[in-house]
Design goal:
164 residues; alpha+beta; Alpha-Beta Plaits; six-stranded antiparallel beta sheet; two-stranded antiparallel ribbon; 27% helix
């Protein structure tokens, strides 16, 4: 069994409900179980500011899948939610599911980069991750707790807990 940390984000079509639905869908992935889910957080958009704020969370999954098989399952969940992939990388979206970490693996191929390329600079990733895995160390040896203590919050706010 591997442990994978998944970033969840949404800023369209009732984001809290989209993330709740995504957590439910994660629980239905074969050979996978949810170990924990962070609180929901509101964050400002990274890209164009003329879009709604995001709702974010992080889930820890115990899985028997390979990283690419898990990626396929996550993309199927996004597609079922109505996600349409566009050229605008930081535009609004119904649902975004990212593999942040997969055990202590370092993966760099055309479909998947793990650890997630921007996680150390993103408060909406680090703070929920530190909430559920405060003692976690990244593959490069950096502590999630230390990184989260030193990141600017940029207006990030805790919204509340998810039902699991």
């Amino acid at each position: 069994m591997a442990i994978a940390y998944i970033g969840l984000g949404s800023n369209l079509a009732d984001p809290a409900q989209q993330i709740q639905n995504a957590v439910y869908a994660l629980s239905k992935i074969q050979q996978t179980e949810i170990a924990s889910v962070s609180s929901l957080y509101f964050s400002r958009p990274m890209g164009p500011q003329d879009q709604p704020d995001y709702m974010n969370a992080v889930a820890a999954l115990n899985t028997e899948h390979t990283p690419l098989a898990l990626l396929d399952a996550l993309q199927a969940i996004e597609n079922d939610a109505g996600r349409i992939r566009k050229d605008n990388r930081w535009g609004p979206r119904i649902l975004d599911l990212d593999i942040l970490l997969f055990d202590s693996l370092v993966i760099d191929n055309e479909r998947l980069t793990v650890p997630h390329y921007g996680m150390k600079e993103r408060e909406f990733v680090l703070l929920p991750l530190a909430e559920i895995a405060p003692n976690l160390t990244l593959p490069d040896g950096e502590s999630v707790a230390v990184l989260s203590e030193n990141i600017a919050t940029k207006g990030l706010k805790v919204y509340g807990s998810l039902r699991t």
